[in-house]
């Protein structure tokens, strides 16, 4: 889609959030031990706050990242750095 809309200077990006306390993560919210196990796998040792994801969305919707298109922005507390390490 980013390639298709590039001639019109329309940016298309994706946000790939990691763990965040939302209904999507209900099992972790309902089970403190499960949540703690998941959080321990995250290098920053905490889940994302929904407001952090929202701030990225607002920034992407602004004029600031004008040249950013066709990108996936991963917001996972550096969890992707652990790929290949059993995460």
Which descriptors apply to this entry?
alpha+beta; Rossmann fold; two-stranded parallel ribbon; 87 residues; 34% helix; 11% strand; 4 helices; 2 strands
Annotate the secondary structure layout.
Blueprint: H1 2-5, E1 13-17, H2 26-30, H3 32-40, H4 50-61, E2 71-75
Task: Describe the structure in brief.
The chain is of the alpha+beta class. It has helices spanning 2-5, 26-30, 32-40, 50-61, and strands spanning 13-17, 71-75. The chain is built from 4 helices and 2 strands, in the order αβαααβ.
CATH superfamily: NAD(P)-binding Rossmann-like Domain
| Silhouette | elongated
- CATH topology title: Rossmann fold
Number of strands: 2
Proportion of helical residues: 25-40%
CATH class: Alpha Beta
Report on this model:
This protein has one domain (2-78): NAD(P)-binding Rossmann-like Domain (Rossmann fold). Helices cover 34% and strands 11% of the residues. It is built from 4 helices and 2 strands; from the N terminus they run αβαααβ. It is elongated. It starts with a helix and ends in a 12-residue tail after the last strand.
